[in-house]
Design goal:
Strand order of the largest sheet: 1-2-3-4
Strand content: 15-25%
Structural class: alpha+beta
Radius of gyration: 30 Å
Order of helices and strands: HHEEEEHEEEE
Distance between the termini: 59 Å
Number of strands: 8
Shape: flat
Number of helices: 3
Length: about 220
Amino acid sequence: MNLRSFRGVAAIVAAATILSACSTFDEITHDWFNSSGSKSKLKGERISVMATDETLKLDDSLASTNVELPPPYRNDSWANPGGYPSNAMYHLEATGSLQQIWSQEAGKGSDTDSRLTAPPIVVNDTIYVLDAEAHVFAFNAQTGAPLWNRSIAPNGSASFLNTATLGVLGSNNSVDPTKGAGGGLAFDGGKIFATTGFGDVIAMSPQGKQLWRSMSAFPS
């Protein structure tokens, strides 16, 4: 038998094996999930997912129960994505109806290349925002006036040889900020803490000066 004939026989055997496996799988799944009314071979009690919806009813005895809330209060900051680390802001106060008083562009939003995942935080009358390109912006909370902004994406660039040869030769350590999906902001102890989808943790002053940077084990 020559090499060409051997390859042909091997291809036929492989195809037959695959078809046989598919047939066996079909028989098993048919027996397990047969909807013809015969008993299922899966062990355990089958419970309808709709059974709970059918039995839920209003408890008339709770109609006269009073709902008591703690006194409302006005929070002076929103230093974490959930307000506080516990995410429990309880009964907040808002005097009158809420109205928009200003709006500002705050970097790049979500699109097919990147995702905006970090909610803004508010501390000491300043709003801090992290956009979808690992760029932090600070605004005056009362007027919306821009205060400062800085990129916290990792630094990197392509070598001259890499650029001159269109990427064929040389090294390329450039970073595309849109590829660092994720990240967030928090404020504590007089510092802004930011994480990025590139796995960096950065501490900054309220004025935007970087205090330190550390690489975490996983992207944030």
